Amino acid sequence: MSEVPFPRLPDVSDEERTARAKAAFERLATRRTCRAFADTPVPREVIEYAIRAAGTAPSGANHQPWHFTAISSLEAKRAIREAAEAEEREFYAGRASDEWLDALAPLGTDADKPFLETAPWLIVCFAQRKGGIEEDGKTNNYYVTESVGIACGMLLATLHEAGLATLTHTPSPMGFLREICGRPPHEKPLMIVVVGHPAPDATVTEHALIKKPLEQIASWL
Ligand code: IYR
Predict the structure, then answer these.
(1) Ligand 1 centroid vs 28 CA: distance in angstroms?
(2) Sign of torsion, CA 96 100 104 105?
(3) Residue 78 CA, ligand 1 centroid: distance in Å
(4) Closest residue (by CA) to atom 2 of ligand 1?
(5) How far apart, in Å, are the Cα atoms of 137 and each of 14, 133, 183, 213?
(6) Given the CA of residue 96, which atom of ligand 1 is nearest to it?
(7) How far apart are the first and last CA of the chain?
(8) How far apart, in Å, are the Cα atoms of 142 and each of 2, 35, 63, 103, 147?
(9) What is the reported pTM?
(10) Which positions fall inside the Nitroreductase domain (predicted)?
(11) Interior CA angle at 217 toward 215 and 221, to 5°?
(12) How far apart are the CA of 87 and the centre of ligand 1, in A?
């Protein structure tokens, strides 16, 4: 086992540290899920950096059990939209429980997903159930969902920093994404991150603005 020194961190006062934490919180707190996208293009390089950022996430045994398929071709976006809407129609027409549909009501979502075609980029995020660093498809991976969840969070944060709108879309079931993206059976699609500029008339529901306060989400011992 060879080691290198821990990388240098910014040498700032606690006051400056607090200011940086507050600034980061305030920037991230302005992220809103977007459900109406403009068709304005976004350079591939932005997506490349966001995926690179996601790829630096911590992961079980550093196996990096993720794969991101970035899609800008209209043909592939259309195929995803068609398959997702077919699943969503069944979901809204009865596959989902009444309790689930009630919980979704304040979001105003339905089976129509035009953004899957309008937005310039769809990033399909896959979790590799097996493979290790070598991606041999056999070696065990660990804490896969946790690792890919963290990577997706870093992907979203980077895209937000780049001034872009995002939506995490989870059609259910989403096995069709594996076929469209040409991924192997041991990879499980986790979510589609829809990326682009918001449509000029995009809105957010007031429900989305309700955030639990610190006192509720944290306790201190
Ligand atoms: N996948 C469906 C339903 C949906 C489920 C949850 I939980 C949400 O937070 C939002 C939507 C859809 O995309 O419409």
Answers:
(1) 22
(2) positive
(3) 19
(4) 171
(5) 46, 10, 11, 43
(6) 3
(7) 36
(8) 23, 33, 8, 32, 8
(9) 0.97
(10) 29-197
(11) 70
(12) 11
**Res. 1: pLDDT tops 90:** no
Q: What is the fold, at CATH topology level, of the domain defined by 43-106+114-187?
A: NADH Oxidase (3.40.109)
Per-residue pLDDT averaged across 172-190, rounded? 96
Copy the structure tokens of residue 23: 């600034």
Give the tokens for residue 26.
Answer: 């305030």
Count CA atoms within 13 Å of residue 196 on its CB side: 24
Ligand 1 pocket, 101 CB below 6 A? Answer: no
Distance between CA atoms of residues 216 and 221, nearest Å: 14
- Which sign does the torsion angle of CA 100, 101, 106, 107 carry? positive
109 CB near ligand 1 (under 6 Å): yes
DSSP 50-71: HHHHHTTS--GGG---EEEEEE
Return the structure tokens found at 15: 């006051």
Counting from 1 in the atom list of ligand 1, the atom nearest the Cα of 100 is 7
